Amino acid sequence: MEYSGLWSCSLLLLTVLSTVSAAFYRKRPEATAVLVNHTATLYCAFDGLGPTDEVNWYWYNPETDDKLYHISARGRVASEFSRHSIVGSSRRGEYNLRIRDVQPADEGNYRCSVFTVRDAGDARLTVVVPPVNPPVIAGNLNPRTVGEALKLTCRSEGGKPLPHLMWYNGTTALEPIGMFYQEVSVGSVVERKLHIPFLTRWDNSANISCIADQGFPNVAPLKIATVRIKVHYPPTVITPRQTVQALEGGYANLTCIVRGNPTSVFSWRRVGDSLPQNAGMSNSSLLIPRVSRSDSGAYLCEADNGIQPVGTGEITLEVIYPPKIKSTFDQKISVLYGQEVFRVECQSEGNPRPRISWRRKDTKQPFDNPLTLSPLNYQTEGYYVCVARSDDFSEDTKETYVDVIGRPEIVSQSTSVSAVGGDTVELTCTIASDPEPDGVIWELAGRDGRKRQLRGGATGDISIKEVVAGEQTQSVLVITSAETVHTGNYACIASNMFGQDRQDFRVYVTEDSSDVVMIAAVTMGVVLGILFAIVLTLCLRARTIWASRLSKSVFVFDLMQRYLPPLKRKKEIDEPKDVDDGDTKPSANQHAQLDQKDDGNSISHLHDTASCCTVLMMELSWLKRISAAGQYYLHSVEPVSEITPLPLAIDKGFSKSIGGSPQYFSKDFNEELY
């Protein structure tokens, strides 16, 4: 009770004094954690301390009792706190409390205060006692199979304060998704459980850690426990190359990669067939030292580690080899003449797949595959070559002979032959046939309508001979001295066991050459006579026309001579004798003088008399006289009546009529007359 009363009086006194004091905290004490058996320092400093101000340190622990212990006053420490001391410069107002060899009993609240300062500063001192041992992880740590659950427990004993336990996968904290945690604290023991309901292949070899954290990482180090879990999962086969190409006779390596736990056992097998006899295995690889085209196919890499299912990977081996034509057709193929369509297909092995085509051996004519011939005749007979090509390899070829058999075919053209009596006539019949024709018959249909057949040999002037030219037969009919009796139709008929064919010829034989000359002469004479008659008729017609035109011209001349005396030349007016300045154009005065003259010989007089003339009614503007022959040409600009213009030309002159305006010109245009 005495201490309680004293404590109440002290607090009252501090409160009263603090209201009049000028001191204040420069450094308040702060909560501090210290490891057991280490030294702790609580800092406290004031400004504005007066001479009567005393700095005191107090300690109390509300968790154990309510007693307030006075540690020091004015830098002096009570004797019962032997491990405590005040450090710092009192002149600067520093009164720091230092505790050596801190023990768990030193934990509590510490207060640094002055009676005159309100709100005394308290600080919590925490003494950390680490656990003696790291936590322990317990549970079934045997290898687990994928899909199973995992349950683990982390246990930590001792330590003050008790640590907080956390689970980590490596450096990543495990989130409570699909996992379950349970923390139990009993006395000085802490436990936390981990539950993973479904393990995957990715959990294999995972480092699962349990960390004990007391909350003061800078004071007490973390305690960690770690286990590595094993998860068994079935193998997975990976094929880096799904297709492997190898040249025939070369080396092939088929490799697969297997992922699984535990280690798998490998095996190889071929789909639908057995492995090549010379194949060998090395780890996860299948080695074939010398491959052949028969080794092509799919190969399976299988891995088994006791966890189902068994891992499988497929690799296709593709053997590259040159083209090779298969024996799908014979070297000689017989076909029937006249058949509509014939086809033969060429097949070839090879990788890559060959390109197949055909060509005719003699003509190099290309054909597609299958070879298609239509229609079949003896022209299609011959050698045909199948060609198989592929990149990086030489081509492979195989030929066959297409043999056409059937009735004969006459391949020569039908002709008409004209000959003169005494000439030699040859008719050639070319026959293609397989088998050869049994015989060739010539049939003659003469002028008298009778028909007769001719065979090989000579009959009178006609002989027949046969010539073999390659695979064809030629039958030649020769008329040594042709006569008109040989004129007629000839037919070449060839036959064999399959049938026959025929070809018609026409022969015209005329008389000898003298008769031809006579006929030609007579024909020429008749033609010339007709031409002479035509020319004579045209000449007479032309003479009549010109005579009519000449009479009209003379009539006009008579009128002109009657009314028009000879006029002066233009140059006589343009160039008077007394003018020598070279000006050829008449002056205005000269024109006036000419117009004033009215002696019946001028042009104005002609205008006066023109009205009285009923024959020549036109206005004359120009009159031209040419040379001494007295030839005149009349040029009229405007017709005064509908009189048909008459050409006024004699001998050397010529005329041209345009509508109703006749125009007359001289061949010599250098002279012009008025």
UniProtKB/TrEMBL annotation:
The keyword NADP belongs to this UniProt entry's keyword annotation: no
Region feature (Disordered): 571-602
Secretion signal span: 1-22
Transmembrane segments: 516-540
Subcellular location: Membrane
Bilayer topology term: Single-pass type I membrane protein
Domain of life: Eukaryota
Ig-like domain residues: 29-128, 130-228, 234-318, 323-403, 408-510
One matching Pfam family: V-set
Protein name: Ig-like domain-containing protein
Origin species: Branchiostoma floridae
Lineage: Eukaryota, Metazoa, Chordata, Cephalochordata, Leptocardii
